Structures are given as structure tokens and as C-alpha cells.
Amino acid sequence: MIFKNAAVFYNPHKTHTTALAEEVCAFLRQHGLQAQLITDLSTLTAETELLISMGGDGTMLSCARAAAPLGISLFGINCGTLGFLAACEREDALSSLQALLNGKCALNERFMLHTRIWAKGAKPREFLAFNDCVLRAAAPRAFLVEAKWNGKDIPSYFGDGVIVATPTGSTAYSLASGGPIVEPGVDVLVVTPICPHTLNQRPLILSAQGELTLTPSFKTASDRAACSIDGQINLTLPPGACVQISRSALKAKLLCPPERGFFQILNRKLKWGNR
Questions:
Q1: Half-sphere exposure of residue 53, counting CA atoms within 13 Å on the CB side?
Q2: Which CATH superfamily is domain 113-249 in?
């Protein structure tokens, strides 16, 4: 992979990141790339071939949603806490970038979710999610979620809500709610109930080729459901609205050195397999 144009995205309010972002940008320029510092992802264009994400996993989620529609490859430098999605830690930034420029990083394509919100009398709203789409009550309470899979009714959920995650998102909110760990290359949707008010409701694995429709239902007319995209886009749904979730045609293109494979990160970051 040969890159000519790069953008380095960082949060200017996090002062500990600014100096490193400037250093990374200068490093890329020294190696012949046209590189620019950006603090607004809406300024990205299709001319950009490489996006460097300087932050934590939340920054990676935002960058992935912005980069995927433009086909931009994404390289994450962890400047946050966990950094599960990043390609390297901040102290290894320049050596890891050198490995990238030397062609020693793999390109991992991760599928994303296409979420469409339907409400009576309104134009459908569409969103892209990298990790998950979460349906919950706007105010804390248990509620009913009616479900359809490829247009056919399946058993409903009753509890605090439902998480629909990609394999990438299976290690995030879904995992914390009792969902399974899914290797990123597996072509499935993970449906995890949040605090189900029953003893027989368990996480469900569905083919990523289908479409799941979730419709919230409340006993009190004034209650509302909320839909959260990657925990960053949060919407209150009008009465009668439903959420359709399917695999997006777009993919996140993550660049990663070979020593930072999925199972190594799972062990290092989440202590999976430790005794």
C-alpha cells in the first residue's frame, strides 16, 4: 500500500494529544506524504487515502464512520484509555507508522451496520454504525421490543433494551451485557438483550445477510424509546417508530501491524484467557 495523501485527526481540547499529532504530521511529510492536521472530520475528501486517528476508541468510532463512505484507510494511535481498536500505543506511534509505510501492516475490512429509523409521516433517517445500534428507553424503565427477522415475527424482548452489534462491536457494550465475543471476520449480527426481565432470554447470533426490525412499545403513552448509534449519535424516537438494522455495503478499512492481532489485543486489553 502506497499512500500519497494523509490526514491526522485529533481533539484540540486534549492538550496531551496536540504535540504528538503535530509530530506525526511532520513525520509523514518527511516521508513524502501530503499530510494535514484536521480537527473536523467533515473536512475529509475522497482525495485523502490515509486517516490517522489520534485518541481513544471513541475517536476511532467517529473516524470509521467518516472514513468508510470515502473509502479511506484508517490507522489508530491510542491516546485514550483502552485503545482496543487502535493499531498502536502513543509511545510506539512513529515506529508503527514507519512499519506502515514499509508495507508491514495488514488491511482488515470490518463490516458496519446500516440503521434506518422509520416514523409515521416522516422521511426515514439513515445512519452508519461501526460498533452497535442500541434501542433503550429514554427514561429508565423496562419496556417491550417487538422484533421481526426478514419481515417475519420472532419472540419479543422485555427489559431495558436491545443491543445489535457487529463482530467488532461484540467486545464493547454487548460484551458488558453478557453477549459473546465474535471474531471480526465472522459474518453475523449479535443481538444482546439488556437486563431482560426473564430467565430465558439470551443473546442471539443472526446472519449478517438479513434485516432485523425492532419496534418499541410502552404501556404509558408519554414514554419514549431512544436509539443510540455507537454511543455517540443519540435520538429520541416518536411513538410508533421502528428501527431497521442490516449490514451496510460500506466497510471500515483498519490498518494493523501483525503483532496486534485480535486475540493478542483481547488478551492484553481485556485479560481474556488469563489465569
A1: 31
A2: Probable inorganic polyphosphate/atp-NAD kinase; domain 2 (2.60.200.30)
Name residue 162's beta-bridge partners: 135, 193
Cα dist from 232 to 14, 150, 177, 192, whole Å: 18, 27, 18, 19
**pLDDT one-digit tens code per residue, 146-201:** 999 999 999 999 999 999 999 999 999 999 999 999 999 999 999 999 999 988 89
Q: What is the pLDDT of residues 45-90, one digit of tens each?
A: 999 999 999 999 999 999 999 999 999 999 999 998 888 999 999 9
**52 with 9: CB under 8 angstroms?**
yes
Cell triple for 168: 467488532
Phi and psi based region of residue 121 (left: phi greater than 0; alpha: psi -120 to 50; beta: remaining) = left
With 80 as the cut, is the pLDDT of residue 1 above it? no
Any idea which residues carry the catalytic annotation?
57
15-30 and 93-101 helices, crossing angle to 10°: 30
CATH topology of domain 5-105+257-270: Rossmann fold (3.40.50)
Q: What was the pLDDT predicted at 12?
A: 83
Cα–Cα distance, 251 to 20 (Å, whole number): 28
